[in-house]
Amino acid sequence: MTDLSTAAPEIPGRPATPAPTAPRRKAAGGSAGRSGRAVLKHAAMIVASIIMIYPLLWMVVSSLRPNEEIFRNASLWPLSFDIDNYVRGWTAQSFDFGHYILNSTLLVVGCVIGNLFACTLTAYAFARLRFWGRNIAFAVMLMTLMLPIHVVIVPQYIMFSQTGWVNTMLPLILPKFLATDAFFIFLMVQFIRGIPRELDEAARIDGCGHLRIFFRIVLPLMTPALATTTIFTFMWTWNDFFGSLIYLTTPDHFTVPLALKSYLDSQGSSDWGAMFAMSIVSLVPLFLVFLFGQKFLVRGFATTGIK
Amino acid sequence: MSAVGELTQIVSRRKKGGVREKHPDNKISLVFMAPWLIGLLGITIIPMIASFALSFTDYSLLAPPEFVGLANFREMLGDTRLHHSLVVTFTYVIVGTPLQLIAALLLAVVLNQGMKGLSFYRSVFYLPSLMGGSVAISILWRQMFGADGLVNRFLGMLGFTDLPGWVSNPDTALWTIILLHVWTFGSPMIIFLAGLRQIPQMYYEAASVDGASKVSQFFRITIPLLTPIIFFNLVLQVINAFQTFTQAFVVSGGTGGPSDSTLFYTLYLYQKGFTQFDMGYASAMAWLLLVIVAIFTAINFFVSKFWVHYDD
């Protein structure tokens, strides 16, 4: 039942995850039927890839086209490099788009710090400490993973409106410092369980308390899990619309998703070019994270998903 | 082991009653657990109780809550927009989730056969699932499925003319959002891929020696060994699908239109609670959502006994 091999693939001295299934075609490779099927399979995959990615590519290409061209041209060709849409979209609202990017960045930084701080502490306790009620607490934590946010959002809103925090980022950041993202706790618990206990025990014998074991031994070994948490928190916070929509009411506090929404409201469907341009701007950070953090994203899913 | 698997294990172990554990770390664990405990109490449990209490009141933030008994729930019985939003949401969950998971499973199986360019295809299929929840993609969808949008351009090339806007037609608007959901099959696909790699190669070799075809290997080996992961994906995707909001909000411009055809339950809840500030009614709706999600999850867990195989 324990499946530690998936939890911490990078801990030294333990076999890595089983190698990917060996190519099954190899043994019988070479015959015409086999290679014909391989070609067919690749053809099918290429078609599927194009269908999947076409809308995104078309949005990029269209954002660089004049407005009337967007409706006329469904193909990616001819390319044009008209940055007019970007110029118009950037300054179209009461603040430059950079202002919203800055707001979103601040929110992301706050949420990342909160999650890293609170989830590591909680995960260490669940994975390493023996205390009264641990199993029940762990089950409760797993259940909060499945709790719809709507069942707490109304009282939370009332609470934060009484403290005067509506239209600030505090209602969106504070909960992260209180370990409300159970997904990451679970991910980290899985990871810490994969760290050999001998390391802690050696430190204990040297007289280290749990706080020092946590900071000196476990935390430094957790960097892959911390990276995964950072990347996921970034993506989810950057995309989060519901929270911003409820708590942020004036344009000076708008995040990127909210700015896009209010732009759409004010424009209707009259200026797709500029709207596409700002949409692309909002997707670029996600794309960069995807490009450079894919390893951690995939591992995060794999770790929490197995069995 | 996944969150779902672990939860099942804890619950079943509790029934048996284990050995008495010792708790040497009670004091220090309070330090480590403090943020989570405060959060659980202040951000989750107390608001949940408050939300339950509010569901029996009439409250608009301006005046103190007024106790109205079961009036909110009685109103819900007769609220046709609410009933409609349930139909919309159920359609989305019951059609969209299986389609998304089937796409994810099929492509994971194909990709797992050690084909060249695996990482490229994986990236291409995964990328949409990272962006699918964003406002930007919903804006794109609104253009694509509009009367003059990308989809109709393509259909026009194929000879179809006078096509309506898919998002402005009440019969098709919901389906464009379901399609968006299916388009984001990348994240369950990654989980399936990781699961497929855990299946020992020797099972397939043994089956091949016995003369089993690829198809029967898929149904007799791959699927049974993957059931815990299919189950995990199913539980989480159903719970997530019930909470879909951004796509419906942006595609319909916040109205749930045309003719309430994209009035997702969460969108209606938002309208009630945060545009009409009918906090009592919104709380009652939130609790109904909780009950529905809990029932769906319980059914999933119950039915899982008959089709999910844990190999221990």
TrEMBL record, chain A:
Q: Where does the UniProt annotation locate this protein?
A: Cell membrane
Where would I find the ABC transmembrane type-1 domain in this sequence? 101-293
Q: What are the alphabetically sorted keywords of the record?
A: Cell membrane, Membrane, Transmembrane, Transmembrane helix, Transport
Enumerate the InterPro entries for this protein: MetI-like, MetI-like_sf
Q: What is its main location?
A: membrane
Q: Where is this region: Disordered?
A: 1-33
| Listed PROSITE patterns | ABC_TM1 (PS50928)
Q: Could you list the residue ranges that cross the membrane?
A: 43-61, 100-124, 136-160, 172-192, 213-238, 272-292
Q: Which Gene3D superfamilies match?
A: MetI-like
Concerning Pfam families, the annotation shows:
BPD_transp_1
Specify the protein's topology with respect to the membrane: Multi-pass membrane protein
Assigned protein family: Belongs to the binding-protein-dependent transport system permease family.
Q: What is the name of this protein?
A: Carbohydrate ABC transporter permease
Automatic annotation (TrEMBL), chain B:
> Where is the protein localized?
Cell membrane
Q: What membrane topology was assigned to this protein in its record?
A: Multi-pass membrane protein
Q: Which InterPro entries match?
A: ABC_transporter_permease, MetI-like, MetI-like_sf
- State if Transport is listed as a keyword: yes
Species, as recorded: Brachybacterium rhamnosum
Q: What is this protein called?
A: Carbohydrate ABC transporter permease
Q: What does UniProt list as this organism's lineage?
A: Bacteria, Bacillati, Actinomycetota, Actinomycetes, Micrococcales
Keyword list (alphabetical) reads: Cell membrane, Membrane, Transmembrane, Transmembrane helix, Transport
A Pfam family annotated for this UniProt entry: BPD_transp_1
